[in-house]
Batch of 4 targets.
Target 1
Amino acid sequence: MIEPVTTRTPATVFSGFLGAGKTTVIGHLIDDLQAQGIQVAYVKNEVGTDTIDEDIIRGKHIVTKELLNGCICCTLVGNFYQALTEIAQTIHPDRILIEASGVSDPIAVALTLKSHPLVQRDGVVTIIDVVNYNGVLEFNTVTQHQAEFTDLIIFNKVELVSDERKQQVVGYVREVNMTAPIIEAPQGHVQPSLVFGIYTADIAEHTQMLELKKVELTTATHHHLEQDNIETFSLVSSAVYDQERLVAALSALPQRIFRIKGYLQMKTPTGIQTQLINGVNQQIHFDHVPVGFAATAGKLVCIGFLIRQLQPEVEKALKSAAVE
């Protein structure tokens, strides 16, 4: 699906049932983003009058917006929309992270993002506690939507269970979601490049943009990524592309490629323009490059499971969308 070129702030929704460890995973991601100089705004929704796990986020020197006493998918939709407006207009962060309460319906949250003119949905992420998850509760629409309506599933607390237990949870998830990629977060850590698309601040030094550049992972975590068969490759292209044909070609690639991001030269009604491109699970979004950005060629990175062998297929897709 083609989305228009915009300058909206990318926002990622983190969903998952109560106790899944959302705040822990988000806290580590915030640390990693801040280490890269990325300004983060954090919206946290809690049911009740007190926040939980507040100490995990406190002291990280980020902009926070807490929404209490309701759920952002229902009674606090107005407040949620207003909070996004306030953050986008006054703070101008590079990225917004939204932690929905454990009883929030991610569909309603994502629809709110889609309707907001100042933000763009950069993915819905569901976090699952592999210790306690035993499938979708019968007649529980929220838990079903959390597992079903997501771009990426993160298994948390994996260090506490056996491989057999993880496979059992995979089976539970696949009963309702056959396509969303599943990755692990040992001790609540996951590589940001697997979760987020590209954003303006990320290409300030465009010569390094497409590297999985931050050494935020321990050697053990690198081994973990290898064991999970997560691979990446990048392509350089000086071609000019037709937007509709490019979207069609990239959307037809195997679902093992769950992230596509970079910048390419695009043919537009006003001439050739370099545009950012973000893709997650066949949803493609284009954005403006920063003022003053200059590159002699376009670059594209692909991330997924055992995808290095798919590089010729991606090259063929790009070629099919190039303007003669």
Target 2
Amino acid sequence: MTSAPDPAAVPRPVHPLRDPSLRPLDAPRERLPPWLKKRLPLGDAVARVRALLDGKELHTVCQSARCPNLNECWSRRAATFMILGDVCTRTCRFCTVPKGKPAPPDPREPERVAGAAEELGLAHVVVTSVDRDDLLDQGASHFAATIRAIRARLPGAVVEVLTPDFRGVGSLVDAVADAEPTIFNHNLETVPRLYPRVRPGAGYERSLALLARVKEGHPEQVTKSGLMLGLGETAEDLEQVLRDLRDHRVDVLTLGQYLRPSLAQLPVERFVPPDEFAAWARRGRELGFLSVASGPFVRSSYNADEVYRTVGARAGAGTS
């Protein structure tokens, strides 16, 4: 006869913005629907990952963007590295990454990222960055150096980059793609009608052109993009964006729920139920995406390794 589990050892559903490691002091205590409550994993793996990153003086988007999946991902020793510092030169209204004047790039950072990826035993390494409009090359050479450093230490790893738009400068996009990441991700974030409110300083057509340029110059690279839902988009808006992405030969789509991380960011207009996310996943596959990750907690790099395996399986089956 088995004994009843200790109630203290059973993970409890937690509001993602009430985890003290994620929530700023001014975060709103929104009433979330039941499908937006997560069980935080037990164990000390999260503390070990945090100690490793702190010891190497590295940043992650998991922390800076207050991702609700941090504990889950770090418990699996998966983290998304954020290079070029933790201060952004853009003022996107959905993001909590600090804004201002960044410090100069650290030339030793690419090697520290590669070392951390090796210590974590990562087979799939995701690297993103803040926007660096203050730099002549907007950080493109730093991305390339980081990709090469990871390749040198982990030659068999999948390397995924999630880049800014480089203000549409094609040579800078090429500099990153020429370093041969496996996956080149650039997020549209929202539908074009909402860009002035959500993503000032960015351009919808500019982002589409970036993704098309990568695929044209490096057809072997997997291109990927994602959007947040719940900011005021309509079904018609989203349908057109999915069609635009496929017209620009994007392979992978991610769709997740926008969650307001603090009072300084835009409010949530709507919580999208799981069945709608499932319907959009089906629609994405109908349109020809090789992989679609669609759900309330989906983020660009959430379960990125599983998403990539789906790409290989569908491509191997001859899906166009």
Target 3
Amino acid sequence: MLAILAVLCLQAGASAAPQARVSSGVYGNVARFDRLTGQQTESGLAFIGWDQGRTWGKPYSYFLDTLGDRPHLELKTSRAGGHGVISPRSIALGRGDAHLVGLSMAISDSQKPVLLRPLGEPNNSTSPYCACRGGSQNSTRWYRKAFQRVYVVMHGGSATAMSAKLRALGMPAIGTDLPVNPYPQMTVVWNPLAVGVPDVRGNHYRDYYPGSRFVDAYGNDYYDFGTYSFVRTTELYKAYPSKPFMFPEWGLDRDDPGYVQAFAGFVRTHRRVKFIGFYNGRNGSRVDLAKKPRSLAAYRRYVVPLTR
């Protein structure tokens, strides 16, 4: 009996074991945020428009050099000056390959591990590539193919090997050899919302899933803008149990320490969560944690220990 009780105690202890350390990210002034919270952030976040770094804006190297030890890049479809976007169909057909090739080479040259988040929040109607807007070129089918192409090209390899994969997916070949960016040196993150906006048939996260072979990790952006519940996030967490889970963006626009504590509790009890990226915004903005003293105290108490 004593032996059985000892085993049961060990099992109970194992199930109650704390979450392993999670990687931390911030959107905003990282140095200021770390002074504020005592966190040691690894990943700064930048939103990169299509061809930004290649034909307009600062070069790729600027972002890779300034976003910490593990740069976090969200790959958007907007073009220079906000004039138009590239559609998922065009990406799938190879019409945006020059940007993918340039970014892939720059990431390899940086020798840094990178989180790459292509076409985040596809089931959000504010995203120009959401299937709920823009016609057939934005269909979920084209989104899935676009994501697959990004995945193949960004992980690199010989043109022959990449082209074979692309042709098997019904997409055009690529003519450029690229350095190999293997996982986890390159982590391609699929980032739908747990609840579609709008939450209608055809705009569920499952409609956009590119397939397990083309996802290194996945996760939900989750904010407290007045209400929160982790029910649908839990559903998304359980949907693909073989993949690491992330919160590429989370934050709040009110002083709500209960949300911060609940978020930390979710991370602590869901061991596949590997990354949490706090969206702090610009200094003094409505989401700036510095303006929320009780939430800041909760962040220091409950979140920071998870990142150490």
Target 4
Amino acid sequence: MAFGAHDSASEVSAPIQPNEKPLLVVVVGPTAVGKTHTAIQIARALKTEIINADSRQIYRGMAIGTAQPDQTERAAVPHHFVDFVQPEDLYSAGQFESEAIEWLGQWFRARRTAVLTGGSGLYVKAVLEGLDDIPSDLAIRASLKERLQMEGLEGLVNELRKLDPVHADRMDLQNPQRVVRALEVCLAAGRPFSSYHGKQAFERDFDTWVVGLRMPKEVLNERINQRVLHMVQGGLEAEVKSLQHLSDQNALQTVGYREWNGYFQGQKSREEVVAEIQLRTRQFAKRQMTWFQKMPHIHWFDAHENDANENILAALRVECSRRGWQLSDTPSRD
């Protein structure tokens, strides 16, 4: 069927046909690069909905510090897997894989497309490729946690660097829970934690089309700095203070939250906290780009260009045309 035909069966929002494979459009990139805005534009054009793949935006009560889509953005396009887990509850990438794949299976019974977006590389990998069955050992975990309390984090980080330098280079080494978990796997399995992330991908019942957003380092750094200031002006301090009783939980071992501990104890100024959050966020963005640049089959776009989203939609229109689907020129405002 020719692209541009007006047969309803060619509309990208039409029900999936028996001979078709649905398409998951994925938007990745570092924090503050504009993923949410781009994902919304794509979802509106496709007349579909969005799955969040950010491992911190899943938590309730953390809307400001994790830059969750606001109510206006969620009203424009429904977002799933946002703001649904209590901060004191553990939620793994494996759980996300299981629940997101189940959601997509239901959705794709009637729909041709969906959008997945987020900056958590492991969450994205979980949906696109699947995760290996990673071992656990509660005795080793308990021992590592005891060492953490007795010796501090630095010794565990140094051991992880020796046992798994690949994973250590791309993870948040200031997150005690993640360091403990990575070391637990290394010690329990006798092999690097990163070795569980490189096996052959599981075959999915849908195709993927991945958009990567990037921009010059100096531009992204300034966007990060301004975003942090906006968060603080928007009430980040009060949000973190309301969660102080949970400060030892994994959810709160997050950039934007843990930096306030010294402030509340009278050891840091507010200005020092803001500067530290900005620095840690820039470092986090660098790790994100390291992860995503190693992902295959990404269509990269320069997000700082004024016509970036137009270029993305034009490329997506070509992809839809290849499938015999028609993508409208004007995004839906329904």
